[in-house]
Every structure is written in C-alpha cells, then in structure tokens.
C-alpha cells in the first residue's frame, strides 16, 4: 500500500513548502515539506544549505514517504483502508515510527481499527517541545477526520 492523494495533500498542506532552510517550532533546521534530512545519506539539513526547487522537493517527499509507508505497514496487524493508512502515514511522517510504535493509538488500531476512541488517541499528540501547538491540534484533527472518512 502506498499513500494516496488525500494523505499526500494533507501532509503538504500542514508542512507547507519552503525552498530554503528554516527552523521548525522546536528549532530544528528544516527545508522543503518538513524535511530534516536528505536522502540517500540522511545528512541533516543545515541552515546554510542551498535552496530546493519544487521539483526536487516533490521527488524527495515521495522518496522519504516510502520509508514512513514501510514503517506503518511493518507496525500494523490489521488491514486498513486507504484513508486510514494515509492518516497513519501523515502521523508517522510528523512524529516518527518510534512514537507510533509506542502509542496507544497503534494498540487500539491493531485491536479494532473501527474503534471510535481512536479519535482521542490522535488528538493526544498535540505538543512539540512540551508545548501545545494550534497547528498540531488542527493536524491531528485532520488526520482523525481522514482516518474515519
């Protein structure tokens, strides 16, 4: 399973596009659609890196997302529909596979992917650097809405 158009658009909408490096809300050097590293060598983004073109960014996003798709597939024990998968790839892209693996969100999905309490589990992940961020509240709601659509 690969991320669908809805999931891809959700990620693009929430990450935004930045051709030049910037610092994310917790101070990490970031570029493109929220990239903190480059493939294939996983070199971290530095603030003096050259700009990316949109074409480079689109290709990087798809390449990087394949890692997150694989993480989600590896951690799932239940079959999901496309929207559910897309929501989890977005979540994992933003928070990492380690957080997904340890989450009650994943436990509930692997027990019963239709459990309505899954909404609450998405919404718990609203902090960065220990602070609640409005953008993360909106993103988790959008992921939850996609998951149950």
UniProtKB/TrEMBL annotation:
Keywords for this protein: Antimicrobial, Bacteriolytic enzyme, Glycosidase, Host cytoplasm, Hydrolase
InterPro entries linked to this entry: Bacteriophage_GH24 (IPR051018), Endolysin_autolysin (IPR033907), Endolysin_T4_type (IPR034690), Glyco_hydro_24 (IPR002196), Lysozyme-like_dom_sf (IPR023346), Lysozyme_dom_sf (IPR023347)
Top-level class of the enzyme under EC nomenclature: hydrolase
EC number(s) per entry: 3.2.1.17
Family matches, as CDD domains: lyz_endolysin_autolysin (cd00737)
Highest taxon above the source species: Bacteria
Substrates-to-products reaction catalysed: Hydrolysis of (1->4)-beta-linkages between N-acetylmuramic acid and N-acetyl-D-glucosamine residues in a peptidoglycan and between N-acetyl-D-glucosamine residues in chitodextrins
Recorded family membership: Belongs to the glycosyl hydrolase 24 family.
Protein name: Lysozyme
Native source organism of the sequence: Sphingobacterium kitahiroshimense
